[in-house]
Amino acid sequence: MDAALLAAAAPARPGERVLEAGCGVGGVLTQIAARRPGVSLTGVERYPVAAGLAVENAALNGISDRMEVLNADIAGGFAALDRPRFDWAISNPPFFDDETTLRAPASAKRGAWIADDGLAVWTRFLTDGVRDGGRIVVIHRADRLADLLALLGERCGSFAIRPVQPYADQPAKRVLVHAIRSGKAPLRLLPALVLHDRSGAKHTSEAEAILRGEADLGW
Q1: How many domains does the chain have?
Q2: DSSP string of 22-79?
Q3: Quick check: helix, strand or coil at residue 85?
Q4: Cα 196 vs. chain centroid, distance in angstroms?
Q5: Which one of 20, 54, 85, 110 has the minimum C-beta count within 10 Å?
Q6: How confident is the model at residue 116 (pLDDT cuts 50, 70, 90)?
Q7: What are the CA-CA distances from residue 167 to residues 103, 143, 214 (Å)?
Q8: In this structure, what CATH number is given to the domain that contains residue 78?
Q9: pTM over 0.85, yes/no
Q10: 218 lies in a domain?
Q11: Across-strand partners of 134?
């Protein structure tokens, strides 16, 4: 679900370049490729097996000519990639900085849950990775919103925040945060995306359209 929402929240235009920090096996990038013809994609993934699978997934989906996967650690910084800055930088960072705050995840999933160097390393990589006026999109736990705004706010502005709620009468568990490097516009709190209702359908009609690639989460 998080990967699908992140892909829907990056409406890049033909000719633009999108960078994903922590791309895993390429789930987000392949979805963006399907949604956005003419967009160039670069993923950064520190685990060699996952990076290799992302390369295979690009080939299976016929997008190897516009999807690049770099086996690198974001802790090394964006400059180490030796790439020009991007139009978009997106990420679904690990949700926790301290593994004592939750039951220890399986070793194979630890990297997806624990940010060894903290959330600041991820936000720094994203802000370094986009040009002035470039866009950053992050999906994260709702209770980390203040941290995201503080960290991204060091060099970004023009924030737009979209809460993601399980049901209309329940608090948001996720937030999608959009920021512009060097942006100066006031913060906007957008209508929440509600995933489920009480009708018995799997998803609300809005969520279903997004998950099927029939709608985007625009800003």
Answers
A1: 1
A2: S-TTSHHHHHHHHH-TT-EEEEEES-HHHHHHHHHHHHHTT-TTTEEEEE--GGG-GG
A3: coil
A4: 22
A5: 110
A6: low
A7: 26, 17, 21
A8: 3.40.50.150
A9: yes
A10: no
A11: none
